Amino acid sequence: MAPSDVQLLGSWASPFSIRVQMGLKLKSIEHEFIEENFYSNKSDLLLKANPIHKKIPVLIHSQKPICESLLIVEYIDEVWTDGPSILPSDPYERATARFWTTYIDQTWFPIMKELEKAANDEAKATVIGKVIECVVLLEAAFEKCSKGKSFFGGDNVGYIDIVLGSYLGWIKVTELVGGPNVLDGTRTPGLAGWAERFLSHNVVKDVVPEPNKLLEFYMMVKAARASSSA
C-alpha cells in the first residue's frame, strides 16, 4: 500500500494523535503524517475531513476520513488484521477494554485538566485527591486486565495501553510544573512498572515526545493564550 493511501492529520504533541500513531506503528502501516496546528489556523483539509468537530486526529484511508481517536484505533484494528491485535478477541475482555478507555478519556483526563485551573492550594489538593482515586482504580484495572503480565493487553501492548500510554508524556509535564507524582511507585507499583515498560517498547519509543519538549510546547501555548486574552 502506498503511503498516500493512508494519511493522519494530527499534532506531534496531541495524546489523541499519539495513540493513533501507535496503532499505525503496531500494525506496520505506512502513512503520511500531516502536522496540524490544533489550536489555531486549521487547514482546509482538516475542515473538510472533520466538518463537525473540526478537530484532530483524522485518519484518511483511501480518501475516506475517520474521526475521533478511539474510533480510529478500533478502525485500524479491524481493517489491518495481519498485524498484532489491539483489542482483545474475547467479547467480555473487549467490552472491558472499551469501558476503561472511555473511563480514561471521559473521567480521569478531565480531572487531570482541572489541576491547571485550580485557583488555590485548597482547590488543588481537592483535585489531587480525585486524581489519586482514579489512578488507584486504574491500578486495580491493570492487575485484572494484565493477568500478571507486562501490559494491560497481556504479553503485548493493547487498547488500554495505547490510550493511557498516550498521556504519559503529559503526565510527566504535570509533575514538572508542580503537580502530583501521578504514577507513584509506592501507591501504584503496577502502573509505575507498566509505564517504564511501555515507554521502552519499540512501538512507543519514537512516538511519545520527551517531557521537556512537551513542557516547552505547553509554555509556548500558555503564553500565546495569555497574550490573546490580554
From TrEMBL:
Keywords: Cytoplasm, Transferase. The keyword DNA-binding does not apply. Its EC number is 2.5.1.18. PROSITE patterns: GST_CTER, GST_NTER. PANTHER family: GLUTATHIONE S-TRANSFERASE U19, GLUTATHIONE S-TRANSFERASE, GST, SUPERFAMILY, GST DOMAIN CONTAINING. It comes from the Eukaryota. The keyword Membrane does not apply. This is Glutathione S-transferase. Belongs to the GST superfamily. It is an enzyme of class 2 (transferase). It catalyses: RX + glutathione = an S-substituted glutathione + a halide anion + H(+). Is involved in the conjugation of reduced glutathione to a wide number of exogenous and endogenous hydrophobic electrophiles. Residues 90-215 form the GST C-terminal domain. Coiled coil: none annotated. Residues 4-84 form the GST N-terminal domain. It is found in: Cytoplasm, Cytosol. Gene3D superfamilies: 1.20.1050.10, Glutaredoxin.
